[in-house]
Amino acid sequence: MIALKRTLRDCLASLTIGLNTALAALPVFFISLLKLLIPIRTWRIGCSHQLNRIAEFWINCNDIWLPKPEKIEWKNFEPATLSEKKTYLITSNHQTWADIFLVQHLLNQRTPQIKFFLKQELIWIPIIGLCWWALDFPFMKRYSKSYLKKHPNKKGKDQETTRKACEKFRTIPVAIYNFMEGTRFTEEKKKRQKSPFKHLLKPKAGGTGLVLSALSEQVDSLIDITIYYQDKAPGFWDLLCGDNGHVRLYIEKRDIPPAFIDRDYAEDGKFRAELLQWLNEVWAEKDQLLKTLQPDNEKKEKAERE
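and the corresponding structure tokens:
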């Protein structure tokens, strides 16, 4: 009976989200075509605003079906201080595709529409790939070290793509979501890269540095999110079935150090070192928080309080 209920919810949620995506895609494609055909700056900015409103509506519809976090804790600031008129950098630890849906649920209509860097291959996903393109999500072509060694002319292409994407964001507020670990966390990956953190991979500074270089004083702050799954991290289908276990979100708004403004990440080695040091300090705090949330530590703290 439980398996049947899960299957029915899975089918209904999949159908609803699929229909929601298809219906939202129609006006997205139409407005994107108008934006492409009429090369007037104010017109294109207006089209971008309308496209973002459609994306917000799509997220609100999905929220009807997707399970909510068990606990959301805002650290050191009030969520009401966030604004859709400001530009933010957003980061979180990364364990599963469900992370994106949780962060969208958390920040939708509190910040500008969230954009994140995507692998170029994802543009070929039916419907949603073209929607990402229409909504100005930047697509990145990643090259391995061995490939770059054979094709040195491709070196720096990802930096060029980031700069071009950020040029579009100069005319409209944006929230850029960057998984600084670069990939989903697994114990195997942690061991392979010899991460100094217990619950995290090493942070990468490249994407953040290039965004800061391109947008400079436009970036208001870093929204640092720590996602803790008490049980195993849910897959996409687990999320659709309402089986994401206990999830907690901890959010801290961090000021961008003034020394990072108007610096060139690609050319300034000192800036690269300073930024990476700062991110490692942020990651150390995040790792400590995740450590305190582990079941044994939670039981110990509860016993001490009693």
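(Above: one complete record from the training split.) The beta strands are 71-75, 87-92, 114-116, 118-119, 139-140, 175-177, 219-229, 247-255.
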